[in-house]
Specification:
Layout lengths: L21 E3 L2 E5 L6 E2 H10 L3 E2 L5 H8 L8 E6 L8 E2 L23 E7 L2 E6 L3 E7 L5
Parallel strand pairs: 5-9
Antiparallel strand pairs: 1-2, 2-9, 3-9, 4-9, 5-6, 5-7, 7-8
Length: 144
């Protein structure tokens, strides 16, 4: 009466939907274009599953290349924080002091004493609470 019931195939990601790194400047990055921002642990996990890390930026040239790929008005996680030593910003990937920081005017300010992670917005950096939900930029290597 209802006709034949067919098995529904499992959803699969084709290559365009599967997150992957792309060359941006001299390194390889993944920039999230998900529908919703995610908390930092979820962003870190996305990068880890891809074999990478939340991104740190090495210089102005690299920042300019990334700025050309991101939505200017969207907030993105960077893999930089000062959780261990307030005011000393370290790359999560390399464990070294971040080589390049381009702060928004008046930043970092550690507002309310709980801004220890770093976001990229409008091409500049800002310290934010690590509990914030943002979009993700991953780097493939752990050199920076």
């Amino acid at each position: 009466m209802w006709g034949r019931i067919e098995e529904i195939p499992s959803p699969r990601y084709d290559e365009e939907e599967t997150p992957k790194f792309e060359e941006i400047g001299s390194r390889r990055f993944y920039i999230s274009h998900r529908r919703y921002p995610v908390p930092r642990p979820a962003a870190e996990e996305t990068c880890r599953r891809m074999g990478g890390y939340l991104a740190a930026i090495k210089d102005q040239e690299e920042l300019d290349a990334i700025k050309a790929k991101v939505n200017r008005h969207v907030r993105y996680w960077l893999g930089i924080n000062d959780r261990d030593n307030n005011g000393t910003y370290v790359s999560q990937a390399s464990g070294k002091v971040a080589p390049f920081l381009k702060w928004r005017a008046g930043e970092p300010n550690n507002k309310k004493g709980d801004e220890h992670c770093v976001e990229l917005l409008d091409g500049v950096m800002n310290d934010v609470p690590c509990s914030t939900a943002l979009f993700t930029i991953c780097q493939e290597d752990n050199n920076v």
